[in-house]
Amino acid sequence: MRKKQVYDYLIDYFSREMPDVETELQYENHFQLLVAVILSAQCTDKRVNMVTPALFEAYPTAETMAKATEEDLLRYIHSVSYPNSKAEHLLASARIIAEEYNGEVPSDMDMLLRLPGVGRKTANVVQAVAFGKAAMAVDTHIFRVSHRIGLVTKRHTTPYSVEMELAKNFPSEIIPKAHHWLLLHGRYVCTARKPKCAKCGISDVCKKIL
Known about the structure:
By secondary structure, the chain is an all-alpha fold. The protein contains eleven helices and no strands. The chain has helices at residues 3-17, 30-39, 45-58, 62-66, 70-77, 83-100, 109-113, 120-131, 140-148, 159-169, 175-188. α2 (30-39) runs antiparallel to α6, α2 (30-39) runs antiparallel to α8 (120-131) and α5 crosses α6. The two termini are 19 Å apart.
């Protein structure tokens, strides 16, 4: 099966099986989405969703969080991975957004990357989820799944190269959904150690590179 056929096959399958896919992170505005994505680095969405309700009740906007201290934030996020650095990043980002971005999370990549704790993957998630942009965030799940099912080749050895290849081959209007399709497939079916091949709906195109 040629590469285009693999992409077409996946688009057809996931469009039927996951037509309304979205992030599993819980949030009510763009700032809260940004906070949740920063917290999710090397941490599960389940854990993030356990700590954010109280955090967002106390600090629902960038302006309110900008007035906090790192110690204030640590009381809410101490159970996530790397809480000290994340508290520092959240506070610094909130202050930049409140003071320089008029309280609004920007949609521009360069402006997002100015925010502490925001790398390319986080910026892409925000662009895709908050603003519907054709931005392909590549995490460990997407990196693994993309290689296993032949969306990319072995020469794509970095998240950035995988991002570029996926963005080139998925139609731009599909990319925000495709990110979630591949992520959730990797999270629940094509897992790292024991992939659930018997329950996989796309096994026909899998390269079986486990």
